Please model this.
Amino acid sequence: MRIDCKHVWDYLSAYIDGDVDPDLRAQIDRHLETCEICSAVLDSTRNVVVLIADERVFELPAGFSKRLHERIDAMIDADSASG
Amino acid sequence: MPTSSSPEFEAECIRRILAGEKQLFHELIRPCERSIFFLLLSLLGNETDAEDAAQETVIKVYQNLRLFRGESQFRTWVLSIARNEGLGRLRKLRTLREDSLEADTDEVTGDYTPAILTSWREVPLQALERQELAALLREAIQKLPAIYRNVIMLRDIEEMDVRATAQALGITEGSVKVRLHRARAMLQKELAPKLKGYAPERKRSFFGWGS
Model:
């Protein structure tokens, strides 16, 4: 069975995560071999996933951890004082 | 005591904290800090509120530590507390608009058409040195509806698995997958045309439309 582009797009995310069954994966792979559009859509989606996972994109605010642990210290002190 | 954030380390740590070694709580919570903050940022939309809610979350984790049963990963349990903290604040602010965080509307509707482009293959990771690219990515994620933003935050940014994401957000694994798919699709559509400009120089591409 041949699958169309729309069908491939529906499974793109699952395909990237390796979460499609072997039969469907083989069909998608065959489609990708001949469809430049779908393989570009797949590559760009995968690139977006790689980029947003980079730790330089989402950084904790400066001093976040220090302030959090100061708060924890204050809480532990209060907890210890109350028994 | 085992090092790293393994379940054994966590269980041992919790046992000792409850037995009185309270300072160990710092080490227990440290590996979860980032996920707590970014889940709350995705819920609340600004860093000040997210930081405040993150501190409250950590206090609640400490106060409820003896309730942790080890049925889920420690981080998952912590994130469900963070989520409740975030949702509670949203309810107070009455900012739960139409993109309700609790409605589980994942019926397959709407035809999604990706951004069509043919030659962007390399990932422009080195371009992240430039702040504008990172800002572009953050902005695109902030623009997603909250129910998609939460899922992509935990799955693709904090790299949690489907099961843990579902548990932390209180939704089914099926919903996690559907929402992740839509979130990635929306980001591809929004970002691919813009990011193409950041792709490294490469040899001329030989494929074209319909070839």
In short: Chain A has one domain: 5-81. Chain A has a mean pLDDT of 91. The interface with chain B takes residues 6, 9-10, 12-14, 16, 19, 36-37, 40-41, 43-45, 47-54, 56-58, 60-61, 64-65, 67-69, 71-72, 75-76, 79-80 of chain A (CB under 8 Å). The two ends of chain A are 71 Å apart (CA to CA).
